[in-house]
Amino acid sequence: MVLPGGVWNGGDLDRGFRFHEVTGALELGFEEAVQQERSVPARVTRALAVALESVGGCDADELSVRELSVADRQFLMRHLACHLHSEREWHSALCPSCKAVFDVRLRPSELPIKPPGEGYPFVTVPTRFGQLRFRVPTGADQECIAGLEDETRAVPVLLQRLLVDYQDNPTALEFSGEDVAAIESAIESVAPELVVWVPTECPECKTEMRVEIDPYACLQSGRQGLLREVHRLASAYHWSERDIMEMPRDRRRRYLALVEEARGMMH
Asked: Is residue 201, in this structure, part of any structural domain at all?
C-alpha cells in the first residue's frame, strides 16, 4: 500500500509508509496518545506518530505526521484501524424520514480514492493580487485552525498558511469571495480525496440517503481489554508488564489461549 498523495521531498513524491508491529506497548501508547489531546487533528497526529515506523522515506514523528496532507492522514487512520483491530464492516444509519435505524455492510478500506491531480501538492491560481501559488492543507493547518478562538478567522488564516513562494507579508492580503472560491476549487482539483459517505436506501420507507464513514473512528476505542490481558498473563506467568507489552499481539493472544485452556483442564 502507498499513500494517496505522498510526501514532497523537493523534487518528487515519496508515498511509502510502514506501521510498527502491533504489540501491547503500541496499543497502550496509541490509547494514551489520543486521550492527551482535545482536538481531533491533534489526536490524529499523536496517534499516527505512535503507530508509524516510517512515512515518506523517513522515520515517523509528530513533525512529519503534521506535514502530511489531510487525505493522507485520513487514509492512514483508516488503515491503522485495520492494523490495530479487525475492520468494521457494519455501519449504522438513521433514516431522516421515518427515523428507522438500520445497518449497512461495507469495507472502508475498499472504497475508491480520488487520486491527486497534476502538480500535487501545489497549484497556481489567478487572484486579484496576480498569480499566486498554494499548497494543499496538512495536519499542521488543521491543528492551527482548530486552535483558533475566532472561527471567522479560519479561512483567512488557512489561506495565508497555504500560500507559498510569496515574498511579502501574506497577512496583508485580503482575498475577495471570488478569490477564495477560485483557490478552494483549484486546491480541490489537485488534492486526493477519500470517500467519506456512500449512498443507500432506507429498507423501510425507501428514502434515498447516505451513510457517513468516519475516517477517524478508531480514535474511539478503549484500552480496558488490553489491561485485563496483561493482568491475566502477569498472574499466570509472573512476567513483568514491560515483557508482556513488548510481545507481539498474536503471541500474547496465543499465551492467553493457553491460560484459558489450562484453567479448563483444572475444572
From this structure: no
